[in-house]
């Protein structure tokens, strides 16, 4: 008994495209053709295809399948390797489910790590979200935790919103005044969350990369007046008071 490519794919529970791909990578030998040019698959092809599908369903990669199919020894090492890979995948998926549950519960942005998800996500500007996303990638665990704690209980300040609405052509007096009025609030935040300051020796890519990336983000994501306010604010925070 013989079958066409479409028929053997249906019998094996796979797709026509998969069968053709198995031919291309050498997993499945090309069958003889009928007089009309159509492929003619036999039982040996179906058995081979079923074995390929079985291993693929278990999670074997195509190279692993190729190594296993023609080896008459029990593939213990390959199975153990696959089991370890699956265990790591399950762990990753479980973490993802926990994060999804938190994101749903808090109605937090899905594009930000849970540790950086603020309580009032809707109030964030697009620039703020972009900066937070970059920081979460390059910041060390200590500051990441500290920022997360701050964002979940961010205190209000009289200057809230002024920085976001600051026009790019704001005069020096306006910028200096805003930085002065923002400084006390930021100092109180730092006192309440000491983990926000200090060395970045636990940054995964190093303190310099974190500093350079954060600086570049600020310059590109905020307008010139806002950047100037941030520079002035940093100077005020460094000065004794």
UniProtKB/TrEMBL annotation:
Keyword list, A-Z: DNA-binding
PROSITE patterns per the UniProt record, alphabetical: HTH_MERR_2
Ranges of residues in domain HTH merR-type: 2-71
The keyword DNA-binding is annotated on this UniProt entry: yes
Keyword Ubl conjugation: no
GO molecular function, one term: DNA binding
InterPro entries: DNA-bd_dom_put_sf (IPR009061), MerR-type_HTH_dom (IPR000551), MerR_fam (IPR047057)
Name of the protein described by the UniProt record: DNA-binding transcriptional MerR regulator
Organism this protein belongs to: Pseudonocardia alni
